[in-house]
Amino acid sequence: MQFMYAVPDDAWHVELSEAVPAPASWADIPTAMTHLPGPAFLLAVVPDEDPAREPTISISTVGERDIPYEVMCWYMKKITAEVDRRRTAVVETKKGDR
Known about the structure:
alpha+beta, globular
């Protein structure tokens, strides 16, 4: 799972992808990751500037794949926590502006 901020969207993008092996050349690097994110197959867009904007979930149509129920539940819990965190931050910021 990767989190990145998309300035044009004023939103966080939370991608879920299948892990792919890191390059073999990294094998001798003690702190190197063994796996990297592959192409995202789920994308949540979580607005953080406007709490009235609803989050959205996109499913990639590139290559068919089944998403195990437990993985989808885990991902949705993470997205729910991210939505709650972003909405709380907006409320706290507005309180501070008073």
